[in-house]
Hints:
Elements: H1 10-27, E1 31-38, E2 41-49, E3 62-63, H2 67-82, H3 91-94, H4 105-109, H5 135-139, H6 156-170, H7 174-186, E4 203-205, E5 212-214, H8 224-227, E6 230-231, H9 233-245, H10 253-259, H11 268-273, E7 275-277, E8 282-286, E9 289-298, E10 301-308, E11 313-319, H12 327-341, H13 357-360, E12 364-368, E13 371-377, E14 383-387, E15 395-399, E16 404-407, E17 416-421, E18 427-432, E19 435-437
Antiparallel strand pairs: 1-2, 1-11, 3-6, 4-5, 7-8, 8-9, 9-10, 10-11, 12-13, 13-14, 14-15, 15-16, 16-17, 17-18, 18-19
Amino acid sequence: MTTSQEELLPATRRALLHRIAVAQAEGRAPSLVAAVVRDGRAVWHGSRTSVDGHAPDENVQYRIGSITKTFTAVLVLRLRDEGALDLGDPLEKHLPGTGAGEATVAELLAHTGGLAAEAPGPWWERTPGSLRPALTDVLGERPLLHTAGRRFHYSNPGYTLLGALVEELRGAPWEEVLRREVLEPLGLHRTSAHPQAPHAGGWAVHPWADVMLSEPAEDLGRMAPAGQLWSTTGDLARFAAFLVQGDDRVLSAESLREMRTPAAPPEAADVAAGYAYGLGLEMRRSGERLLVGHTGSLPGFLACLTFSVEDDVAAVVLANCTSGPLLSAVGADLVRIVAEAEPRIPEPWIPLKDIDPSVLELAGQWDWGTQAFALRLTADGFLSLGPLAGGGRRSRFRANGDGTWTGLEGYYAGEQLWAVRRPDGSLSHLDLGSFVFTRQPYDEGATVPGGVDPEGWRGIG
């Protein structure tokens, strides 16, 4: 993949190079490679290395660890969209006898299934997968540490179960299904379960001396769906663009929005840190910016894929060291540098071609009790409700085709909005999940639960 270095301004490119140079030097990484994606394509690639005369490019493979989980989640969502499963199905319905079957598919995707973080036995990332030939070897005698659905507890065995679920429903190995249904359609020809030259070697850097130790590159066996993959910044740049825009050959934009919606109850520390987990994707707050993606690590490698949907900028950062630079911070900085130096130019405003008068009548100010809200029609055909001033509940609403609307976010997600009309057809009020919104605060002409004091509004005295 050849990226155009002229897509970004020289000052922006220098700032990006400076950031990864600092990360490689201060993090003491043998090598570090990065890419930036804007408007759905890679616009910058950079690398730093400790080896004179050799700079890894966007075609050199690195191990990406838990970014593999996002690929596995895409496969599971494909099965859901085809009707082969429901996210609320208990695992036992499709994959009986695991001992963890009470956890639902959604809970496994969101790490709320109650499973242990790691497999029993020796450190699974540094030992051959042949030591764990069956699911029982991955789960152990006590797979559930917590009540399913109660808390977020990151689980590698949980994604092993999801990989096994894919194999059961597809009747083929996870790696084969992934290649056929995701890698080939998206053109990710340098992403694979096993390293393909050219690829980086994995290293451990001594914490107190500038010396290195080679790390083993184990085949994870049954644990592969949790962290096996190798990839490149070129391929992950394409994958990042897909995660933002969708591709109907693989997964729709709507299903990808679902993946990047928080699905797990966060721990108190996560709330403070601005961290949440969706269905195979992490969300992190970086300043005022919401970043979505996933990080990964295996002995010898670190990885980060992160993107801002609002800015339409993504970053990929890979390094070949067990510990060192904090790649989530590096990725966040790469996104910030581009988003702030070269902010996204919005599409031209274009008026709607036509509008249903009965829908247009809904637009304007509405009062919920004494709090003023604005209801707007958006260019994508939704209704948008939000307070006129200060904080308050906000949501977009999608038309159901029968005069009702369904909330898409926040407090009103899934709730029904409908316009209540008088016998003569005139608009009386809005009913939103039993809450009444009127054109005036406690409008006497509308049906307000509890009624309106007949003495009306008055002062003191």
